[in-house]
Amino acid sequence: MKPLKVALLGCGVVGSQVVRLLHEQADDLAARVGAPLELAGVAVRRLGRKRDADVDPALLTTDAEALVTRDDVDIVVEVIGGIEPARSLILAAMARGKSVVTANKALLAEDGATIHAAAKAGGADLYFEASVAGAIPLIRPMRESLNGDRVRRVLGIVNGTTNYILDKMDSTGASFTDALEEAQALGYAEADPTADVEGFDAAAKAAILAGLAYHSRVTAADVHREGITEVTATDVASAKAMGYVIKLLAICARSDDGRSVGVRVHPAMIPRTHPLAGVREAYNAVFVEAESAGELMFYGKGAGGAPTASAVLGDIVAVARNRLSGARGPEESTYAGLPVHPMGETVTRYHVSLDVADKPGVLARVADMFAKHDVSIQTVRQEGHGDDAQLVLVTHRATDAALSGTIESLRELDIVRAVASVMRVEGDETP
């Protein structure tokens, strides 16, 4: 049969692996699709740069727009990342009816509405499995397999860099700085790790997952975001002593009344018995709670050239099959239109450590302050004596706004020397 031609935008870590797999698995891919897949061209910024894949120099071009608008191109694969020129190139391709496979989480989280609308207008497919959690099959189950169910909550470790850092802090007692330097030396963290350690990467992925789970439009700007730079070795050791581990979590949850959703990224304590607690090093995992399906766990490599390319190739096969059959994949589903409620309305539990004066009546005054803000205390204990005295409290579920008000009031008490740490608690067990 006539080959389906693929235009590739980008030939870096992921793009070079896409080229390799297209060549090495050409016969199998043709059998699965029903027609050969042929690389029409590869758009790069610099022609002379050394590449990981063996790419025919005749396929390389610096004119990406000319490549994606060629009449003979059927599928455009975008792995250059960022907002521009990726957005303009994708829109140009879709305006000409070309289906797009992308790994661009930042673009989908910032302007997914425009991209989805262009796909619909152009009668093109938009597939983006590789945009969240690398090789882990997650987008398609959320987009299709669970489409007949009601998702209650999505709880995920979706950034390998931060998971590696927190895992090393937990297993070796290292400081954040030392664990970050080790991650950089091993290639798990960039020279500038801001996007990872400050939670921007995870927030983009959380926005995509929330949109799929709750059939509502969610952008990265809607996501409450906190990074891990303030997590100390003392925080990690304290959690460990109570049978907990600290993870950077992306959390998407429907409100109790079902009228809104909360989408947040922040460090949290989870019990070591929870499935996510055992996710080590740079691996990713997403835990989904659905009304009928129950609890589901998706686990695997969340980044890297070959794992991400595997997800890209899966999308290429799906898109190619659709083009041959004259079908189209699922469109964006936003019928529910649920708003994202502010972080202040989010309800969760909290672990609070206070440096306090070691004298009678301290606990009563602290407890009274919690009560004034309608925050119920679940457990409390005192650690140390004299200048080392600490109160460690775990609350029942309370709103973020109520807890914030409590903390501000505690800072004004003469018996509280410092608020040593405040950490959200996820999971069902009591620390």
TrEMBL record:
Q: Which residues form the ACT domain?
A: 351-424
UniProt: NADP(+) binding residues: L9, G10, C11, G12, V13, V14, G15, S16
Top-level EC class, please?
A: oxidoreductase
Question: Which E.C. number(s) belong to this protein?
Answer: 1.1.1.3
The record, for Pfam families, names: ACT, Homoserine_dh, NAD_binding_3
The Gene Ontology biological process annotation of the record reads: methionine biosynthetic process; threonine biosynthetic process
Which InterPro entries is this protein grouped with?
A: ACT-like_dom_sf (IPR045865), ACT_dom (IPR002912), Asp/hSer_DH_NAD-bd (IPR005106), HDH (IPR016204), HDH_cat (IPR001342), HDH_CS (IPR019811), NAD(P)-bd_dom_sf (IPR036291)
- Reaction catalysed by this chain? L-homoserine + NAD(+) = L-aspartate 4-semialdehyde + NADH + H(+); L-homoserine + NADP(+) = L-aspartate 4-semialdehyde + NADPH + H(+)
Q: Which residues form the active site?
A: K205
Cofactor list = a metal cation
Q: Secreted: present as a keyword of the record? A: no
- Would you identify the family this protein belongs to, as annotated? Belongs to the homoserine dehydrogenase family.
Q: What does this protein do?
A: Catalyzes the conversion of L-aspartate-beta-semialdehyde (L-Asa) to L-homoserine (L-Hse), the third step in the biosynthesis of threonine and methionine from aspartate.
Q: What is this protein called?
A: Homoserine dehydrogenase
